[in-house]
């Protein structure tokens, strides 16, 4: 599968400030409608290198293992997600300077193979074709929460 889903929002903070927020993976749990906890288990300097995300959707609870693949301050932060050694996705944030601050683009790239699709159905209750729509809705909520938090702190 090679789907990419993305959503954008304009935030009234500079790109470096937006990057500092989205690269602090612990904050994902406060923004995401599915992720409720993050455990960083490997760092490279002050940046996370690997972490585990704990997720919930309805009655389903699962974890994923994540590896940071892009960490460019002010530009992009992204991580690959696996479960039980199987590829799941790439999640990331692209940051573009804008007149009033930063345009944040959250994206999800589907990297699941058939084994990962089957595991997803078992552990998350998700049917493969529903995941892009669910992630798009979740991105809108996440980006709205990021905007509210960052603009409240800077204002």
Task: Note down, in words, how this protein is organized.
Strand 4 (60-72) and strand 5 form a beta hairpin. The protein is 30% helix and 47% strand. The chain is α+β, with helices and mostly antiparallel strands and 155 residues long. It has one domain (4-154): START domain (Alpha-D-Glucose-1,6-Bisphosphate, Chain A, domain 4, 2-Layer Sandwich), CATH 3.30.530.20. The protein starts with a strand and ends with a helix. The chain has a seven-stranded antiparallel beta sheet with strand order 1-7-6-5-4-3-2.
What value does the Rg take, in angstroms? Answer: 15 Å
Distance between the termini: 42 Å
Strand content: over 45%
CATH architecture: 2-Layer Sandwich
> What's the helix count?
4
**What helical percentage do the residues reach?**
25-40%
Tally the beta strands: 7
């Amino acid at each position: 599968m090679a789907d990419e889903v993305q959503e954008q929002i304009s935030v009234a903070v500079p790109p470096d400030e937006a990057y500092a927020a989205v690269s602090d993976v612990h904050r994902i749990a406060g923004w995401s409608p599915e992720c409720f906890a993050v455990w960083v288990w490997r760092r490279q300097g002050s940046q996370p290198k690997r972490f585990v995300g704990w997720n919930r959707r309805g009655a389903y609870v699962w974890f994923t293992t994540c590896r940071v693949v892009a960490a460019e301050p002010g530009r992009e932060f992204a991580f690959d997600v696996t479960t039980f050694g199987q590829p799941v996705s790439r999640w990331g944030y692209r940051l573009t300077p804008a007149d009033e601050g930063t345009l944040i683009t959250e994206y999800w790239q589907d990297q699941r193979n058939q084994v990962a699709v089957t595991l997803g159905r078992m552990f998350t209750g998700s049917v493969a074709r529903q995941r892009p729509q669910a992630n798009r809705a979740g991105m809108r909520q996440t980006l709205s929460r990021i905007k509210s938090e960052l603009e409240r702190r800077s204002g």
